[in-house]
Each structure stands twice: as C-alpha cells, then as structure tokens.
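Box 3.1 A note on notation
Throughout this textbook, protein chains are presented in two layers. The first layer is the amino acid sequence; the second is a token string describing backbone geometry. Keep the layers aligned when reading.
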Amino acid sequence: MAQVRIPPEIEKLSFEDALSELEKIVRRLEEGKGKLDDAIKAYERGSLLKRHCEAKLQEAQARVEKIVLGPDGATDVEPLDVD
C-alpha cells in the first residue's frame, strides 16, 4: 500500500499547531457526533497530522546533541543516544 504524501498545508504547520489540531480532532471523534463521512475525513486528516508530528519529533531528536569530554580533555559533540 502506497504511503500518502503529507499535504503542503500540513507540512507548513509547526509541531505545536499540528498537535493542537490533532487533539481537537480526537476530541470530536471521541464525542461520536456528526456524520460518518465527516468523521472519516477528520480521521484521515488526523492520521496525516500524526505523521507530521512524528516527523517533526524525529527531526528534533536528530538535532539534539550532547557534549562529550575526551580522554585528552578535548570536547566533542556527538548525537544523543536516547534508545
């Protein structure tokens, strides 16, 4: 199954804005009100927002670095291992 590309209007959202919209969608879906077609569209958008948020978090994790002190006293920077 081919993965759906994240639309540009979602890609331009900050992590915080995308997460806020996703939370609103989840609340609406949990209420169970409204039409089925609207719920399906909201679920699809929520799925794209979730993927966007995950990508933003991965980008942030890749940028996080830690400073290490070498045996000779020199400092270096290496990726933070959070696993």
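The chain has three helices and two strands. The first strand starts at residue 65 and ends at 69.
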